[in-house]
UniProtKB/TrEMBL annotation:
InterPro entries in the cross-refs: RNase_H-like, RNase_H-like_dom_plant, RNaseH-like_sf, RNaseH_domain, RNaseH_sf
Location of the RNase H type-1 domain: 314-436
CDD domains according to UniProt: RNase_H_like
GO molecular function list: nucleic acid binding; RNA-DNA hybrid ribonuclease activity
Protein name: RNase H type-1 domain-containing protein
Gene3D superfamilies: Ribonuclease H-like superfamily/Ribonuclease H (3.30.420.10)
Lineage of the organism: Eukaryota, Viridiplantae, Streptophyta, Embryophyta, Tracheophyta
PANTHER family in the cross-refs: OS05G0353850 PROTEIN, POLYNUCLEOTIDYL TRANSFERASE, RIBONUCLEASE H-LIKE SUPERFAMILY PROTEIN
Alphabetical list of Pfam families matching this protein: RVT_3
Amino acid sequence: MVWERLDRAVCTAKWYDLFPATCVQTLTCVSSDHSPICIRLGGFEAKRSRPWHFEQMWLEDSGCRDTVVRTWDRSVSGSPMEVVVSKLGACQKSLLQWSKNSFCHVRREIAEKKKLLKVAEGEAAQGRQVDQFQKLKSDIVDLLRLDEKMWQQRSKEHWMISGDRNSKFFHTRASQRFHRNRIVELRNSEGVLVSGEGNISTMVRDYYKNLFLSSGLSEVDEVVRTIKSVVTEDMNNSLISPFSRVEVEVALNQMAPLKAPGPDGMPPIFFQKFWSDIGDDVVQAVLFCLSSGCLLSASPKKWSPPAYEVWKINFDGALFGESADAGVGVVVQNSRGEVRAALTEKIMKPHSVEVLELLAARRAALFSQELGLDRVIFEGDSEQVIKALQWGGWDFASGGHFIRDILCIVNSFMSTSFSHVCRQGNAVAHALAQRARHCFPISIWLESYPTDISSFVLADIQHLLY
């Protein structure tokens, strides 16, 4: 028996724009070879936070390069890969701010210019302001080119070259691609339909975690011995030879400029266009990754001091059993491990540990702002929270607004970064969070700290002396 999908629902692009959340469901029929189709109309979907990405059209403005170069030249400490990750995060913040302040909203600007053009056309017909009329026409052509590039990047239609005023086509393809990629529900291994963004995210993550796990293997060595060797000595020497800068540059230039942006939102075109300014750092990071076998260095198990004139702010949250309360602890230390300030606060118990850690991170950011510190490293022991703050994303709707709030606070700082540390390296902040059980509602120490956590503070300083 051959199964073929014969029955389809068809609509125009204009109609789909009015009902973007519409979905088509194929129903079961036992009396015909055709299946009935149920069209479920839907209006506008709830607006989801769109991941940030580098816009191709920004390259048309010289301010883009100035922003990237100025941001990249800042001094950052850490492993080569950590340096690049930190600088990419800083570029993301700088470009976001630059685009808001200096780069126009293209479609709104086009509409405004067209209104002015209509007035100028009447003036030019009477022999007045002809130069203004010509300038407006030129400005609109430039804006239309930017608009076309923006929608070409979103549509992922790389086969069609921009420059022929294909904005409408690119916009339609981008809309179709968005709806095609939308996942409403999935069927799990037990045949049960799973819906909801949080449930689907958990299901997909668990699937790929278990995909390459093995179990019940036996006599593997005997199987391997029966496999004929096809790699010669020369081939092996070539494969194990050290990686070089040339190989990194060749691999980068072979990438399509607008395909496969990373979680930082930077497509290959960003690295290709700014290679003369950022290439040295990127090559060092890639070679470090390939030679060490890890993307980032392992999280430290002990507290480490920040650079001179940089403050490290550790934060943590603590739950108190069945109590309806929770605690937040924050400590500020300098390059010698001396405590500048400490805070412990009792709050209402949130619905998850991850949200509690986000609340602790937010309190640390606010505390830094209140103290007037603008060169800060924020450090916590929740790897999920730190990664979300580094990349500006969050899998669950319950924490996204906290991420945006924290990044908005630290955006005004001169220098910020987020790092992960194991629990034993975050002992002072954890002790302060546990201490919140007995305080109400908040306690703050300046140039000092509570005596009952002295042993944890001394442990941070003591290992630095040896």
